[in-house]
Design a protein that fits this description.
The complex is a heterotrimer of chains A (330), B (547) and C (137).
Chain A: H1 7-17, H2 21-32, H3 38-45, E1 53-59, H4 65-78, E2 83-89, E3 98-100, E4 115-121, H5 131-143, E5 147-151, H6 162-165, E6 168-173, H7 179-185, E7 194-197, H8 205-219, E8 229-232, H9 246-262, H10 265-294, H11 299-308, H12 314-326
Parallel strand pairs in A: 1-5, 1-6, 2-4, 2-5, 6-7, 7-8
Helix pairs in contact in A: 1-2, 2-5, 4-9
Chain B: H1 10-17, H2 19-22, H3 45-49, E1 72-76, H4 82-95, E2 99-103, H5 106-109, H6 134-140, E3 150-154, H7 159-173, E4 182-184, H8 189-195, H9 202-219, E5 223-224, E6 226-229, H10 231-236, H11 240-260, H12 265-268, E7 272-278, H13 282-302, E8 315-320, H14 332-346, E9 351-353, H15 366-382, H16 396-418, H17 422-427, H18 430-447, H19 474-490, H20 493-507, H21 514-522, H22 527-538
Parallel strand pairs in B: 1-2, 1-9, 2-3, 3-4, 4-5, 6-7, 7-8, 8-9
Chain C: E1 8-14, H1 21-32, E2 36-44, H2 46-55, E3 60-65, H3 70-83, E4 90-95, H4 102-107, E5 113-114, H5 120-130, H6 132-136
Parallel strand pairs in C: 1-2, 1-3, 3-4, 4-5
Helix pairs in contact in C: 1-5, 2-3
């Protein structure tokens, strides 16, 4: 049975489709907070998505992700594209709050009607990406954004998640910070479609570049025929003429997109992405259902206590609960 | 919100916090119950103390200090319009001030003319003078004997232009430049670290700074082209030892840059001056100033190989701590200012500004201003502390504290060096991070009563302190804008254009910009126009978010 | 953690003034109290502030003004919010804003003004209470 939709959600989505910013902002808040209408919203929004270019930007803090995003937004605006950006900052594990400060680097665009920037807190998700991130991006798509940047935390292994969301992934490294080694260790380099060597004007940049090239050529066991490109850039400069590599970066992104389109990989990649997202949603929803079912019965507490006392174990608990609540048709 | 009337019982509080946490100064140093001769066992009288006026100047930069000449009583004299500011300055001189500080309004500080759209609503703000053009400088300095009064211009990013105007006015009056004394604050590094009134990127700003230093060393030998400031770092949250370390590091950076530009260290170093804050802890302040002199002298001699003894002397201007003042029970501030001033004098400051007690909520009234001034005069004439130089030398506590300050500074110097120097550390947010952390910690200490502020979180009374801000005079803003328009109509536009073109050209070379700036202000080019061109050539700096 | 509604606050410094110690301390305190703080930085125009507030769907805007320009800036911000149908966003302020100016600000819809020396807990309480009803939803 199709549940009755609350009138304001429908209206909001209607407005969203016309490009209304306030509706977009409000809908994003609603999906971030996973309100009851969450699924209804996404049901209405989904048909209007799938066409935007989604670019992931990941890398350690201080590497210059925000300044790169700033310039890339500018470049795509020059091509008359509507651009969205989702920038993620970590939530405090203690208070649950967050200091979202990336916008400072993006202030150039705060008066541009063709740009929409949203700051998200990671809310406990290590790499900053959660189901909500997918949905926020979709809302921006439905709003009319043609290019959407997603900036993650650079938290390490969980950055791998970015491939699930973006079709082109940029990994931002800087010379001499050792994050190239870290990235290698974490296996992250392989997931990047483009490695951006930012602050390429620093000492040691050339060495770092050669080192990266060497690593890529050796470590590579490409499952695809796209060889990750390295683009040196200088994203922080007081004058436009001192910036470097931005045009090349835009071009390389274009080349990657062309490659995806021309090979059959784009479909395969999309397939995997959707599969992954389904998994996330299933996981989430099932968890919700189970814990909702246990609520008020006092059973959850009992279960946890019995595990603590070693009278029971997590696996038996799960089996028992699933058998009772899921498979018995309750 | 409930506030405890009285602070908690000290013995209990100390036991709870742990002695070291309770008996800590603002710099975080653990203070022992008693200091004794063992604490200064390592002190070498010759190399660590010296005699006053002798290397390493720990005990003072002059042999006789206040016995022969008192510190300069330097009070702030500004008001929105140049002529009103001029009146105030004359008034202060009449009261006995031997030097004045002039600060500027927000638009001038940010390099914008009064008619700039961004200046709207802020012309004459913060009790600062709106200076757009040479005429404003003329009015400001009208009737003031430039050879007798020492003027401190609280100007930073736009210092080169203000200096040019000062020079132009002096020349007009026939005052020889070599007779001009005073100071230009001109400390751009602390802007990036704390006060944030920067415009150009760090390296370009340094060029301007070095230009002014070079120009002054050649033409204004009695003028201090720079006042390397810790005050603002402290106001932004830096603890005294952080203030000391960062200020000295900045100072060394200016020296290094000037030398890199081809200047001989002894040609300019004698005129470098410093500006520190006197916060509440009396001994911490004194130790800070003594450590400053010692570290500066040693480094200038050993690292920069300065030979002229004047290059080794860290001359200091001190201001009592604005951030320690409360709006609540404001008269208590008179005592705070008195104690802070005393510590500055005991620390051997060369000049002193005392805050008015109502400064936490208002531009000083004539009455409060007078009390501030009298505070200095009473210390000078009645307290007896000036009768001998560096009276507290040899105190176990003080010497131990001075040593600790010095040691901790070297720790910071090493960290900064590892980051590639001050400018590099600025770009990496090093100072901003530490300062923000200290600011937050201080706020927490006050809120948890780990730190007591009388009248604020202890001995609180119900009261209604009304803040009295000087109204931004909307009429004045209109008048200023009208004057500016008239100026632009009546001046020679070709001459102005030629000057701006020259500025643009010279800014792209390594040539000193000062001469062309003097020409430009004489041609009635405005501050905003000059800074505008420099912004185009040098670019603008935008900081990353650091909290 | 991800399912609870967070209070979102925009902290900004409009105009030319660069003294950001207070703004940063407040931003950090709010974060420690569990709020999501969008720190928009220095030297912003009222339009930039309002646009940011709307796009970020904040519950409140906190303006730090130490230059005395509050009499021009607050009205501009309130006007822009109204024009964009966003008057439900609470606007509060901090800095050197004298009490005698508060009635005029209140009249145009500005919320509380926090003077120097205010306890950060006061600000946290003010915002928590203002949006408690929202959070309970």
């Amino acid at each position: 049975m199709v549940p009755k939709k609350k009138p304001d959600i429908q209206q909001m989505v209607q407005k969203l489709l016309t490009g209304d910013r306030r509706s977009a902002a409000r809908l994003i808040t609603l999906v971030e907070n996973e309100v009851d209408e969450h699924h209804d919203i996404m049901r209405l929004v989904y048909p209007h998505t799938g066409h935007a270019l989604i670019i992931g930007i990941t890398g350690a803090g201080g590497a210059g992700k925000s300044s790169l995003t700033d310039h890339l937004i500018g470049k795509f605006r020059e091509k008359d594209k509507k651009v969205g950006a989702v920038v993620v900052d970590p939530s405090s594990p203690f208070s649950g709050g967050a200091f979202l400060g990336d916008r400072i680097r993006l202030q150039n665009h705060s008066q541009d009607e063709g740009v929409y920037i949203r700051s998200l807190a990671s809310r406990g998700n290590l790499g900053g990406l959660s189901r909500a991130t997918y949905d926020v991006i979709r809302i921006l798509e439905a709003m009319g954004m043609e290019v959407i940047f997603v900036e993650t935390l650079g938290a390490g292994q969980d950055e791998i998640d970015i491939v699930q969301i973006a079709s082109t992934c940029l990994l931002v490294l800087t010379p001499g910070m050792g994050d190239d080694i870290q990235a290698m260790k974490a296996g992250i380099m392989e997931i990047a479609d483009i490695i951006v060597l930012n602050k390429a004007d620093l000492d040691g940049a050339t060495t770092c570049l050669r080192h990266l090239e060497a690593v890529l050529s050796v470590a590579q066991e490409s499952q695809t025929s796209w060889k990750p490109r390295i683009v040196p850039t200088v994203s922080v400069a007081s004058k436009a003429e001192n910036l470097r590599g931005i045009d090349e970066l835009v071009q390389t992104i274009g080349e990657h997109q062309n490659y995806l389109r021309s090979s059959r990989e784009i479909d395969q990649a999309k397939f995997v992405r959707i599969e992954h997202e389904l998994g996330l949603i299933f996981k989430d929803e099932l968890q919700k259902i189970i814990f909702k079912g246990l609520r008020g019965t006092g059973k959850k507490k009992k279960y946890i206590r019995s595990i603590m006392d070693r009278k029971n174990d997590p696996y038996s608990v799960v089996d028992e609960v699933l058998n009772t609540y899921l498979f018995s048709g309750k | 919100m409930k506030k405890l009337k009285n602070p908690p019982d000290r013995k209990t509080a100390a036991a709870q916090a742990g002695d070291c946490n309770f008996f800590r100064n603002l710099s975080g140093f653990c203070i022992k119950p008693v200091y004794s001769i063992e604490d200064i066992a390592q002190l070498d009288e010759k190399t660590d103390l010296g005699r006053p006026g002798d290397y390493p100047y720990t005990r003072g930069v002059h042999e006789t200090m206040y016995r022969e000449k008192l510190w300069t009583i330097r009070q702030l004299g500004s008001l929105d319009s140049p002529s009103r500011a001029n009146e105030r300055i004359q008034h202060l001189i009449g009261l006995g001030a031997t030097g004045v500080s002039i600060c500027f309004d927000m638009p001038t500080i940010m390099g914008r003319d009064s008619d700039d759209p961004l200046a709207e609503g802020e012309v004459g703000s913060c009790g600062g003078v709106a200076v757009d053009c040479l005429d404003d400088m003329r009015h400001l300095l009208d009737g003031i004997d430039l050879e007798a009064i020492s003027i401190n211009f609280v100007s930073n990013s736009q210092s080169a232009v203000i200096l040019a105007m000062f020079v132009a006015v002096a020349q007009e009056r026939g005052v020889p430049l070599s007779a001009l004394s005073g100071t230009m604050q001109n400390d751009i590094l602390k802007e990036y670290q704390a006060q944030k009134s920067y415009y150009f990127p760090p390296r370009e700003s340094m060029r301007l700074t070095v230009d002014t230093i070079q120009y002054c060393s050649q033409h204004l030998p009695r003028f201090n082209p720079i006042s390397i400031s810790g005050y603002h770092l402290a106001s932004a949250g830096a603890t005294p030892v952080e203030e000391l370390a960062f200020t000295l590091a900045n100072g060394f950076t200016y020296v290094a840059e000037a030398i890199k530009a081809g200047l001989d260290v002894d040609d300019f170093a004698p005129r470098l001056s410093f500006f520190f804050k006197a916060h509440n802890d009396i001994f911490e302040n004194i130790a800070k100033l003594r450590a400053a002199r010692r570290i500066w002298a040693k480094t200038m001699r050993q690292t920069f190989r300065a030979k002229d003894p004047r290059s080794l002397r860290c001359r200091i201007h001190t201001q009592t701590s604005g951030s320690s003042l409360t709006a609540q029970q404001a008269e208590n501030n008179i005592i705070r200012v008195a104690l802070q001033s005393l510590s500055a004098v005991l620390g051997g400051t060369q000049s002193l500004h005392t805050n008015a007690y109502d400064e936490s909520y208002s531009i000083p009234t004539p009455r409060s201003e007078k009390i501030a001034l009298r505070t200095q005069q009473i210390i000078a004439h009645e307290s007896g502390v000036i009768n001998t130089v560096d009276p507290l030398a040899g105190s176990y506590y003080l010497e131990a504290m001075t040593d600790e300050m010095e040691k901790k500074c070297h720790g910071y110097f090493r960290e900064i060096e590892k980051l590639g120097g001050v400018i590099s550390a600025i770009e990496k947010g090093y100072f901003q991070h530490i300062i923000a952390d200290s600011a937050f910690r201080y706020q927490r200490e006050i809120e948890t009563k780990a730190r007591i502020v009388v009248g604020l979180n202890a001995y609180v009374e119900q009261e209604d302190t009304e803040m009295e801000m000087r109204e931004i005079d909307a009429e004045f803003e209109k008048e200023k804008i009208a004057n500016l328009r008239a100026l632009k109509q009546n001046r020679d536009p070709h001459r102005v254009q030629a000057c701006l073109a020259d500025i643009r050209r010279i800014a792209q070379t390594t040539q000193n910009l000062m001469p062309i700036l003097v020409n430009a202000v004489e041609a009635n080019t405005t501050l905003g126009e000059i800074i505008g061109v420099l912004r185009e050539v040098f670019g603008e700096f935008r900081e990353a978010s650091v909290y | 953690m991800s399912r609870s509604r967070k209070i979102r606050i925009l902290i900004a410094k409009p105009g030319l003034d660069g003294h950001d110690r207070g703004a940063k301390v407040v931003a950090r305190a709010l974060r420690d109290a569990g709020m999501e703080v969008i720190y928009a930085g220095l030297h912003l125009t009222p339009l930039q502030i309002v646009n940011t507030a709307i796009d970020e769907d904040v519950d409140a805007i906190g303006l730090s003004i130490l230059s005395g320009a509050h009499k021009t800036i607050f009205p501009k911000v309130m006007k822009l919010l109204k024009e964009q149908n966003a008057s439900d966003i609470l606007v509060f302020g901090g800095g050197t804003i004298p009490k005698k100016d508060w009635p005029a600000l209140k009249h145009i819809g500005v919320g509380r003004i926090f003077t120097p020396g205010s306890h950060t807990q006061e600000i946290i309480d003010y915002l928590s209470i203002a949006f408690e009803a929202e959070r309970a939803k």
